[in-house]
Amino acid sequence: MKTRQQWLTAMIGSLATLMPSALVAQESRSPQVPNQARERTLAAVTSEGDSLTEEQESIAADLQRRLPVGSEGRLMLDAILSGERMGPNDGWFAVAQPRTRFELAELLERYDSNDDRVIDADEFPGDAGDFSIVDRNGDRVVNEADLAWEATRGSNEFGQLLSRLDTERDGTITHEEFEQLWTELSGKNEQVSAEELRRVLFPAERVQRERRREPSRGTLLLGLARQEIGSWNPGPELNDEAIDFELATIDGERIRLSDHLGDKPVVLIFGNYTCGPFRGQAGNLHQIHERFKDRATFLMVYVREAHPEDGWKLPSNALNEVAVLQPTNFGERREVAEVCHRHFHAEIPMMVDSIDDEVGHAYSGGPARLYLLDRDGTIAFKSGRGPHYFFPSQLESALVWLLNSQEPARGAVGVEGLE
């Protein structure tokens, strides 16, 4: 019979094996946001079914006029109207996928000195610590498997296990969280059956469907019209010059992007508190920052809420005590950003976008996105649109390759400014 300590040790060991492969973004639980001192009602533009109301039809027609055929925004509109449900290959997700300067073919051409189609530790230009990061599966070579990230909705077994254990929904698991699960499973007993464990950790598909509760077309249409599910703009492309901007942090400090270029690479992190996958990656982003804060500059930009109470309201947010109305002024947005920043437990400066979402739209930063800029201010990595393609570990891999391959900065740094 396993003791409690043996059970915890075995479970921790299992997770230690699974965690390096991929962290599935999960809907998250975090501290209660300050109550905003007013209520707003939303025009009746949502419906219980999938038929559109007259007002929704009017919104759709307006978007069809405004969004060019073939644009990312139009692809998403067409997907919503045809009944697609925002999967990783639906709408703009089909085209707005990760872009990196460090594809396998380019890396092999540069570093594979013996032409065996892999890069081993001797061929890698950096030290053993950096190599262990890009060798994601630990097989002592870098190959195609180390550069593959799979979009998922978090319904696989690892995602379910992580969601059940990570009660704080911050992407980290503490000893106390393991203890809490054991107590819930066993009560006063010293053992738990395999079937009891399965039922708790991996509930039936019916339960999973009820938890997901797909949004109606009307709800998605409204989210697109308000650019809450994402900006209509595609954002800058790989190898483009970064778009310069200046924003205030939650502490009131003014930060200009171009002031941080030239010395180190810059990591730009876009996100918002009501996006569960963004909150769920807090632990990963904190860990990456701790590892590389002396070698790269990290900046966060807080953008428009993806799932406000007066928009596409998620049941999982309610369960996790996350209830936020869409801010209507900078002060309200800064309040929510302060709560989000505390959730990350990281010393990364958090800038707050203007209420007209100038920077968020310029970078197509919502609901969550990552950029890596080289020291000259050009884009070396651009994540796909969140939540499906928001992978901090993919950013980290690109950062390691950039740090170990980039030539010294050219001198004068050129970035485009917002008009």
Quaternary organisation: single chain
Largest sheet, in brief, is:
8 strands, mixed
User: Order of SSEs, N→C?
Assistant: HHHEHEHEHHHHHEEEEHHEHHEHEEHE
Shape type: globular
Distance between the termini: 68 Å
Residue-averaged pLDDT: 83
Classification by helices and strands = alpha/beta
Tally the beta strands.
12
Global Rg: 22 Å
Shape-level CATH architecture of the largest domain: 3-Layer(aba) Sandwich
Strand content: 5-15%
* CATH hierarchy, class of the largest domain: Alpha Beta
CATH topology of the largest domain: Glutaredoxin
What is the count of DSSP helices, taking H or I runs of 4+ residues? 16
Query: What level of helicity do the residues show?
Result: 25-40%
The spatial strand order of the largest sheet comes to 1-11-10-7-8-9-5-6
Explain this structure:
By secondary structure, the chain is α/β, with parallel strands linked by helices. It has 2 domains: about 5-35 and about 50-100 and about 150-415, Glutaredoxin (3-Layer(aba) Sandwich), CATH 3.40.30.10; about 100-150, no CATH class. About 35% of the residues lie in helices and about 10% in strands. It contains 16 helices and 12 strands. It has an 8-stranded mixed β-sheet with strand order 1-11-10-7-8-9-5-6, covered by helices on one side. Helix 1 (about 5-20) packs across helix 7 and helix 5 crosses helix 16 (about 390-405). The radius of gyration is 22 Å and the shape is globular.
